[in-house]
């Protein structure tokens, strides 16, 4: 897990708070968080590379994620 996620997860007891903290870390600029993850997390970079050109629904299905449930959660 990337240091970005470890830093964000410290003291967080639920997923909603974690998402909120990650948004704060991005400082209103999700591209900055994306760029940081690409540089610091090889697993994230590989995931992005492997899934280029696929829709979010395709990626979710291939990884066993119920896309509709995820949308309701977020």
Distance between the termini: 21 Å
Radius of gyration: 13 Å
Unreliably modeled segments: none
> In percent, how helical is the residue content?
over 70%
The average pLDDT score comes to 79
Secondary-structure content class: mainly alpha
- DSSP E strands, number: 0
> Please, how many helices?
6
Please report which band the strand proportion falls in: under 5%, 5-15%, 15-25%, 25-35%, 35-45% or over 45%. Answer: under 5%
Helices and strands, in order, run as: HHHHHH
Summarize the main sheet: none
* C-alpha geometry: globular
Descriptive notes:
The protein is mainly α. The protein contains 6 helices and no strands. It has helices at residues 3-9, 15-26, 30-40, 42-50, 56-62, 67-73. The longest helix is centred in the first third of the chain and has 12 residues, at 15-26. The mean pLDDT is 79.
